[in-house]
Each structure stands twice: as C-alpha cells, then as structure tokens.
Design brief:
The protein is α/β, with parallel strands linked by helices. It has three domains: about 100 residues, no CATH class; about 210 residues, Urocanase like domains (Rossmann fold); about 90 residues. It is about 40% helix and about 10% strand. The chain has 17 helices and 15 strands. The protein has a seven-stranded parallel β-sheet, sandwiched between helices. Helix 9 crosses helix 10 and helix 13 runs antiparallel to helix 14. The radius of gyration is 26 Å and the shape is globular. The two termini are about 15 Å apart.
Length: about 550
C-alpha cells in the first residue's frame, strides 16, 4: 500500500486492521510516529511539545522514516540518529526493528547556545523525552506521574489528602497541560498560570482543565472559594507567571504547594513579562539577544517568587523543567535551594521498582483500552494504586489520537500485564496488537543531574553508564522467537486410496485448506504481530539497503 506524502495536521495515525507495512510490528511503530504528530502542539514544524521537541529532523527525514517502516522486513533494523534515518541493517526476527539515539552531545558543547547552534546546523534535535522516541500520547503521558507526585506530597505533608489545599503552578502546554487535571484528581484547588491562551483552550477542549479567566481577581476568588469548600478545581489564568506570582505574594496569599512546568529556554520557550506571545515570536527573529536578556530577567523574578513562597512555608519544588539552572544563569545564586520532584517524592517509588509505562491501542478502537482496564481491575487488588488510577482515568481522561493509557506498576507487574494482553490479542478479546512503551520517568531511563539522578545517595550523580547499559541489555535480550506454524499432515493416496480414485486432487485441496488454517491461527510474533509464520517473507542480506540507500 502506498502511503501518501502528508504534512502538519494532515498526519493522523492509521487505524483499523488494514496494514500499510509488511507486518504488525512495523505498522505499530509507524502509527506511534503518526500519533505523535496527531497530538502535536505545532505539527507543521514537527514540534510535538515544549516549543522545540521534534519527532523528526525535518520533513524529508519524516518521509524517509515512513518509507523505511512501510517496506522493511522484520529481520531488519532501522537506525535513527537524532530524528534522521541513517539506514536499514540486517538483524533478526527477535531484535529491535528500530534503534535510536537522540540529542546526545559531547560535554564540551552541551550549553544551550551550542545545542541551538547544532540544531540549526541540522546535526541534532531537541528530542524531549517522548517526542523523538515516538511515544507521545498527549498530555495523558505525564498525567499519572504528576498525580503520583501530588499524592506523595499529600501523604508526606497533609495527612494523605489535598482537599482544602491551594496548588499553584505554571505552564499548560503539551506536557505541562496535565497539571490542572492531576491537581484536581488529587483533590486540590489548582490554579495554573499560562501566557498562551491557545494552549489553555486545547486543555479545556480535551478535559484537562475546567475553565479559564484572564482576570486575576476572579481567579483568586474562584481558587480560594474552592479551597474553602474543599472542592477540587482545575482553573487556568491567562497571564504571565513572572507578573502574577509576585502579585500573589504581595497580596499575602501563600499556597500550600507551588511548582512550575514552564519551558525556561530564554530564546524558544519563556515569554518575558513585558511581551505578548506574538511579540516574543517576532523578537525571536528580529533581535534574539534582546529576547534572551528579557526572558532571563523574567525567569529570575519568577524564581525569586518561588523561593519566597518556600520561605513562607509552602511546599515548593521544580518539576524537572530546568528552571533552577536557567535562573542561576540569570543571577539567582540560591536557585537550587528549591529541590527536584524526583529527589523529593518519586525516587522512593524507583527504589521499589515502581515506574510508569504506556499502552496504546494501535487499532484505534477505544474498546481495546477498556478491555485492558477490565483486565487490570480483575488482576490487581482493589487497594493497588493502579486499580484506583484506572477508575479515575476512565472517568476523567479523554483519549487524544490513538486510545492509550499510562500506568505505574512494580517490577514483575508490568511483564504480568503484558503477558495477559498477549493472551487477549491471541484469543481475539483485543482486536489488534497493543504497543507498550516504557516511560522516561523510570529508574533506569536517564542520567540527568537535575532530574532522575539528582542527589544520589552514593554520590553517583555524574555517572551516565546505567541508562546505556539498560538499553544495551534490552537490545541484547531481544524477544521470544516466533513459533513455527504446525505443519499440516499431507494426505497420500496410499492411505486406503488407489491411484485414480481422486486422491491426488483431494490431497491438493487439503494442502490448500491446511495452509488457510495455518494462516487463520496466526502465530504470535514479538510485539504482537499476528502474521502467519508460514507466510513471513524471507530475504537475502544482499538485498538490504544500507546507509544512504533508504
């Protein structure tokens, strides 16, 4: 099947049982890539979220990725370097179809100015955590992690509940847009400040935010009234955090919890308090140095307000967006008095082997996700965190793009669920393969000194071996070998038949019907592929296109 050239909003994930690729494994990966663009904040520029995190280097690379996935065999591996396809190489049916390295830069060139220059030169991209990895499922992708953080705060500081508590944060984009709903699900009266009204509108349309206002007085009234009634609220204020947080502080209001998920890149992310969104975009082109100076001044004001709230007794933390580092560059010497959410609240879960992963119904059928919901509720005890989360997610989370869920499970529990899903696909209870992706917020996923690996007890913050070993181990382990279809016993004329009595035509007919039965059974392949083992194409290594020949 020929896949047409598509751009921007034209890209939607494939649905249904018809395959455009040579197997379900390739088709599933293609649909994940397309799903990234379907959920993107700026699909015309391949930007998935965070103003700069892209799914591919450029549209030429996107087209070549699609072409490779559509034509490759399952004994080949597509190599991706920071959003650019490098080539198809010979592999095995049990090894990964795609391997990628995204945004890795030698230490000498890791400053933001150098990173931006290398991006502009077309040598790398800013991958985000799930954008260049083709795992983005909309704001839901960070929803439960944010919820788990807020609930950890509730247990540690507020007796297990955030009812009657004020939660103040900033940012309502593709990732940060999970905050208002996560706060509401945790029971808090939640106020999120966002300068770009279009982002708020998208969150309201998808159920992540209840309402918006551009009036600070109205926002504070709605926010505090919800607290007094002990009612959860997801409220957005259209305003600039660098202007609003100091004013809330000046009015003597001290929230119980304060955090932030703005994107603090002073050139491509943070909007200075003096400018509108449109003015910042224009200045980015006309005078980028002036924009950087203005943005850093606002970032410093923003950070000082956070530290002031912390001094008043609020629970204040950074949510892994790099605000502290940028504020220190902007002159706030004590920015790192504010600690990270991983260091404070998430690492204890890592120590238990608990972490998030995602599952996506590549069929596009929501019933496949609801079936897995039921399986989880049947399999795990009612007091298991995943059970209560599934109940909340079914009620409050709208699907965007392909139907998907994210859930936190412990070591061994993820494999248990995956095997149950395999059986459900094999039996037809689930209509098509399910794509499982491991979330970035995981104990072995990253070596980031201001996030996952900050303040390690053994002093290993600087050691970056572990995620590399993790990836190598996953690749070397491969997947289960596909079982061969059982051979059909061939009828023969010597079994009670004489030559000329029709035995041979019957034998031919039975051979044909036996092949049809083998195809109908559809043996499981790694990744949920249901292609008949007897029909899988075998290829000559000499025919595999290598570097430069995609």
């Amino acid at each position: 099947m020929t896949i047409p050239v598509r751009r921007g909003r034209e890209v939607r994930a494939g649905r249904g049982a018809a395959l455009r690729c040579r197997g379900w494994r390739q088709e599933a990966i293609l649909r994940l890539l397309e799903n990234n663009l379907e959920n993107a904040e700026d699909p015309d520029n391949l930007v998935i979220y965070m103003s700069i995190a892209r799914a591919a280097r450029n549209w030429e690379s996107f087209d070549r990725i699609v072409a490779a996935l559509a034509t490759m065999r399952e004994d080949q591996t597509l190599v991706m370097q920071s959003g650019k396809p490098i080539g198809l190489f010979p592999g095995q049916a049990t090894t990964p179809l795609v391997i990628m390295a995204n945004g890795n830069i030698v230490g000498e060139w890791t400053a933001e100015e150098s990173r931006r220059r290398l991006d502009d030169m077309g040598l790398t991209i800013m991958p985000g955590m799930t954008a260049a990895a083709w795992q983005y499922i909309g704001s839901q992708g960070i929803l439960q992690g944010t919820y788990e953080t807020f609930m950890a705060i509730a247990r540690r500081h507020f007796g297990g509940s955030l009812a009657g508590r004020l939660l103040l944060t900033s940012g309502c984009g593709g990732m940060s847009g999970a905050q208002p709903l996560a706060g509401k699900l945790a029971g808090a009266a939640t106020l999120v400040v966002e300068v770009d009204e279009a982002r708020i509108d998208r969150r309201i349309a998808t159920g992540y935010c209840d309402r918006k206002t551009a009036d600070l007085d109205e926002a504070l009234r709605l926010w505090t009234e919800a607290r007094d009634r002990r009612e959860p609220l997801a409220l957005a204020l259209v305003a600039n955090s660098a202007a609003i947080l100091p004013e809330i502080e000046r009015r003597g209001i001290t929230p119980d919890i304060v955090t932030d998920q703005t994107f603090p890149d002073p050139l491509k992310g943070y909007v200075p308090a003096e400018l509108s969104v449109e003015e910042a975009r224009a200045l980015r082109k006309s005078d980028p140095e002036e924009l950087i100076a203005l943005a850093r001044r606002s970032i410093a004001i923003h950070m000082r307000s956070l530290l002031a709230f912390m001094g008043r007794g609020a629970v204040v933390f950074e949510y892994g967006n790099g605000l502290r580092a940028e504020a220190r560059t902007a002159g706030v010497a004590d920015a790192f008095r504010m600690r990270s959410f991983v260091d404070l609240y998430i690492r204890p879960l890592f120590c238990q082997g608990v972490g998030p992963f995602r599952w996506i119904a590549v069929s596009g059928d929501p019933q496949d996700i609801y079936t897995i919901d039921d399986m989880i509720l049947e399999t795990f005890s009612h007091n298991h965190p995943i059970a209560s989360w599934i109940v909340k997610a079914r009620e409050h989370v709208q699907f965007t793009g392909l139907p998907a869920r994210i859930g936190w499970l412990g070591y061994g529990e993820r494999s248990k669920l995956a095997l149950l899903v395999n059986d459900a696909v094999a039996s037809g209870r689930i209509s098509a393969p399910i794509a499982f992706t491991r979330d970035h917020l995981d104990s072995g996923s990253a070596a980031l000194p201001y996030r996952e690996t900050e303040n390690m007890k053994d002093g290993s913050d600087a050691i970056a071996d572990w995620p590399i070993l993790n990836a190598l181990l996953n690749c070397s382990g491969g997947g289960p070998r596909p079982r061969r279809a059982r051979r059909q016993r061939r009828p023969h004329h010597r079994r009670g038949r004489k030559p000329g009595d029709g035995g041979a035509p019957q034998a031919r007919a039975r051979r044909r019907s036996g092949h049809r039965r083998a195809a109908t059974r559809r043996r499981r392949l790694p990744g949920g592929d249901r292609t008949c083992a007897a029909c899988r194409p075998l290829g000559d290594a000499a025919q595999i296109p290598l570097t430069g020949r995609l």
